[in-house]
Structure formats: structure tokens, C-alpha cells
């Protein structure tokens, strides 16, 4: 996709969020989280357009796929890892965010 098309789409997304009070307010909440900038906040809004549908932060975190699961067998005891339940797009976006920021800073 040419750079001009990407910029045009990003501009439309920004304009839509800016012109929708509910989305604008939710983006402000996301951006207040350390490490979350406007591009990531916009991506989160695409996946979770209404954060108020969750009765608690814990439920939203679970929806995003940040739930630990424990693996146990005869040889493995109590090893935890991220569960594969939840939105893979949100999990990937948030999980790789620090790595991307670090890579860009070290270029």
C-alpha cells in the first residue's frame, strides 16, 4: 500500500475519533497509560470501541488476552505463560510495543 494511502487512512481515523466525543474521551484514557501513544490508542479503539461494556478492568485485560495460564505435568510444575485466549491483535500490539520503541531508539 503506497505511503500516501496509508497517510490518508490514518488521517481519516484521526478525524473520525476527533469528531466522535465518546471515542475522543476513550482515546484520552488510553493515552494516559504509560507507553501508549495515539497510534496504539487508535488501534485499541478499533478493537474495543466501548470500554464501558466491561464491568471491570480485569475483564478488559482478559479480553485483551493478558491472562496467565499454568502448565503442569509430571516434569513441569507451576510454569506460567500467557494464555492464548483473548484478542491476538491487542495482545501482539501491546506486547511488542516496548520492543518496537527500543529498536527505533537504537537505530
How many individual helices? 5
- Give the biggest sheet: 2 strands, antiparallel
User: Would you report the number of β strands?
Assistant: 2
How many discrete domains? 1
Helix content: 55-70%
Task: Report the oligomer.
Answer: single chain
Would you identify the regions where 5 or more consecutive residues have pLDDT less than 50? none
Tell me the series of helices and strands, N- to C-terminal.
HHHHEEH
Distance between the termini: 24 Å
Radius of gyration, whole Å: 17 Å
From the spread of the alpha carbons, the general shape counts as: elongated
Q: What is the topology, as strand order, of the major beta sheet?
A: 1-2
Portion in beta strands: 5-15%
How would you describe what is shown here?
The model has no long low-confidence stretch (mean pLDDT 80). Helix content is 58%, strand content 7%. Helix 2 packs across helix 3 and helix 3 runs antiparallel to helix 5. It has a two-stranded antiparallel sheet. It is built from 5 helices and 2 strands; from the N terminus they run ααααββα. It is mainly alpha-helical. The longest helix has 18 residues. The two termini are 24 Å apart.
Give me the secondary-structure topology.
Blueprint: H1 3-18, H2 21-31, H3 38-47, H4 57-63, E1 68-71, E2 79-82, H5 88-105
Helix pairs in contact: 2-3, 3-5
